[in-house]
Design brief:
single chain, alpha/beta, Arginase, Chain A, 8-stranded parallel sheet, 13% strand, globular, Arginase, arginine metabolism, hydrolase, Ureohydrolase
Length: 341
């Protein structure tokens, strides 16, 4: 009987998770983590397409637009082999980390619109400052876990995971300007969805640390629902940890989102991505969400429109938009049909 009382008391003390109805949107007009022009204008393009207005239409959602972060001019030169624009990347992410921390401390779910995926360093660091038990779902065609020694391009947008996880900190040289960011996040709290372009070293790292990974062939075999549920169960079997989703638009198939810098065919359908985000929303534990690598300068008007619309659909699904529609106010039952002979 005493054991039963302890169990009941423990259950009553468990944190009850509910989807946050307060959202803070942060824009990051930054593109120096890669080499193509255009990804920096994505926050403006998303707002112009009705981002804030569409989020506010979701039932019960309170949305605050924090605007774009100020990206400080960095006068300190960071000379590190094979890391382009490191000082600028560092300055941007330091500012972003502080902003994400502020949004979370304001009691809001942090929605960050990039920019390239190097900004994941700032968003995850800022989230970790508030929730050290967070788990990270990296939705991407690429693993982004290269170091400067293994990267073929030298672009930092392929390195954010390696910069964040403490298990790989010994693989880095000293990084000037990056003293503000100490790798504290554990790779044991990381899961991948949508991979299909993984470098040799990245594959070794994923296998060495047993990172839960559902690449596209796995999703093809098991479906998106079983794939994400399995990752969530492995990372958080007790269902008590805050979730951070870092969503690269190139996780979608190039037909769904053509306006992105490193598209790879054979990716997620938009329906799969929406389902993925609906499942994560339903946990009630989503606390931070990044949407990155939309590049309105790539492709024609139709490509841009399709890519931005896909991004809006993903954000809305993560924040509680229902494809079923909403019940009309004051109506709980369908009208009774009367049959006349």
């Amino acid at each position: 009987m005493n054991n039963l009382k302890v169990f009941v008391r423990g259950m009553s003390q468990m944190k009850k998770w509910e989807p946050l109805k307060q959202v803070g949107v942060v824009g990051v007009p930054f593109e120096k983590g890669q080499k193509k022009y255009g990804v920096s204008i994505a926050p403006a393009a998303m707002r112009s397409a009705g981002l804030i207005e569409q989020l506010k239409e979701i039932d019960g959602l309170n949305v605050k637009d924090y605007g774009d972060i100020e990206i400080p001019a960095c006068h300190e030169n960071a000379n590190v082999d094979n890391m382009a624009y490191l000082s600028l990347v560092s300055a941007c992410n330091k500012s972003l980390s502080s902003k994400v921390t502020q949004v979370l401390k304001d009691g809001r779910l942090a929605v960050t619109i990039g920019g390239d995926h190097s900004i994941g360093v700032g968003t995850v660091d800022g989230h970790f400052n508030v929730n050290e038990d967070m788990i990270l779902i990296w939705v991407d065609a690429h693993a982004d876990i290269n170091t400067n020694k293994t990267s073929e391009s030298g672009s930092v947008h392929g390195m954010p995971v390696a910069l964040l996880v403490k298990e790989l900190s010994d693989y880095w040289p000293y990084l000037p300007t990056m003293d503000w960011q100490v790798p504290k996040f554990s790779i044991k709290n990381l899961g991948y969805i949508g991979l299909r372009s993984v470098d040799h070293y990245e594959r070794l790292a994923i296998e060495k640390y047993h990172v839960p990974t559902f690449a596209m062939e796995d999703i093809e075999d098991h479906g998106i629902t079983k794939s994400i549920n399995h990752i969530l169960h492995l990372l958080d079997p007790e269902k008590k940890k805050p979730i951070h989703v870092s969503f690269d638009i190139d996780s979608l198939d190039a037909l769904e989102a053509p306006s992105t810098g490193t598209s790879v065919r054979g990716g997620l359908t938009l329906r799969e991505a929406i389902k993925l985000m609906e499942i994560i929303h339903s946990t009630g534990r989503l606390r931070a969400l990044d949407l990155v690598e939309i590049n309105p300068a790539i492709g024609n008007d139709s490509d841009r429109k399709r890519t931005i619309e896909a991004g809006l659909c993903i954000l809305k699904a993560a924040l509680g938009f229902s494809r079923r529609g909403t019940t009309p106010r004051g109506v709980t039952d369908l009208p009774v049909q009367t049959h006349h002979n």
